[in-house]
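To illustrate the input format used throughout this study, we show a single complete record. The first block contains the structure-token representation of the backbone; no residue identities are included at this stage. The design step must infer an amino acid for every position from geometry alone.
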């Protein structure tokens, strides 16, 4: 993610596992406190929760590895209009 990048609001059908290679990653979720991860940290994102991913840095890229074991007929995410 480039500095300041923000994803669309979305949900997942199965939990993506996110590992932060470098930089900082913030996951903003409806009804929950945002989670901030830094290089070397990881988490499983919750299923069915409206969320968006943010690179809060104004100067640094955030490099992520995302793994999701899922039904291949379903999309990686479903956009939620706000």
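Output of the design step:
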């Amino acid at each position: 993610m480039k500095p300041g990048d923000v994803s669309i609001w979305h949900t997942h059908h199965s939990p993506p596992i996110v590992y932060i290679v470098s930089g900082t990653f913030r996951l903003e979720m409806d009804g929950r406190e945002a989670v901030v991860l830094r290089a070397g940290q990881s988490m499983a994102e919750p299923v069915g929760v409206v969320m968006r991913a943010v690179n809060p840095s104004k100067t640094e890229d955030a490099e992520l590895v995302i793994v999701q074991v899922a039904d291949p007929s379903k999309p990686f995410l479903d956009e939620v209009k706000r």
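Structural context for interpreting the output: The CA atoms of residues 26 and 60 lie 13 Å apart. The chain has a mean pLDDT of 97.
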